[in-house]
User: Fold this.
Amino acid sequence: MGITKEYSNNEITIVWKPEMCIHSTKCWKGLPSVFRPKEKPWMHPNEAPSQQIMDQISQCPSGALSYYLNNQKPDNHE
Assistant:
């Protein structure tokens, strides 16, 4: 199944599947306040409004990034 990492703020949880990532750079070029590839952890979901994060994640070409609303967590989000 591979590694899955999650990063949360109060509203959403970002789900990252590193094995799927094609390093298109769309995430961090589009929203560098949240996605900081040279830092650990590299995601900072408290640094932008949740809607802005969701909009940026929708541009991920590989599907390595996804999210769920914390009040609507799916049974299986993998």
Notes: The longest helix spans residues 50-57.
